[in-house]
Amino acid sequence: MPSAARSMISLDTVFKTYRMGDNEVHALRGICIDFLEGEYISIMGPSGCGKSTLLNVLGCLDRPTSGTYVLGGLELSQLNDDMLSEIRCTRLGFIFQSYNLIPQLTVIENISVPLYYQGIGEDESYEIASGLAQKVGLSARLQHKPFELSGGQQQRVAIARSLANDPLVILADEPTGNLDSASGQEILDIFDQLHDAGKTIVMVTHDENIAHRTQRVVRLRDGQVVNNVYN
Fold first, then answer.
1. Could you give the domains of the chain?
2. Which residues make beta-bridge pairs with 23?
3. What predicted TM-score, i.e. pTM, was given to this entire model?
4. What pLDDT is attached to residue 22?
């Protein structure tokens, strides 16, 4: 277990309940967990166990029904929507299974999207985005659009975009789920490099082999943490 590292994420008794008509769905049931700065964590569990809900809460896409969420020393549970949007833009990086690229934009423009929302100028944005494209091996593809790229290349764009705001935490939802094994391996190698560089990564996966590459595996069942072990 890592020592002398500060807590990057702290969840204390987090519940999330959805109301569907007259029924209540208890998606998260009192989650208490800390993730340390620089950790590489995988979240696993059967379908419907709360993985996606937990990732949405961590990503400020949803707010807990009750409990507290502290990110980088800031308590988020009571922030309004505008403040949560600011947190998403400045402190979090997202990587999705389906890439979520903007089809009309080029590689360099897709990577630059978070910088645009921060009000960073065009020249500086280009410099940052082109550096990130080089980091993920896409320097020769800056003017290509997503439809001109393979799935693995599109995911590289998504990874570069997630790094544009130098986030405190990278949140990845099944990032190799749509890729063949060779492309998936290349993406996982990039995640290893990001972890080696000190990034905090939380990844949802259903693949045990991927989970064993991470430092810690958190398993959910019925909205609760049932196992939390270091590899």
1. 7-230 (3.40.50.300)
2. 20
3. 0.94
4. 87
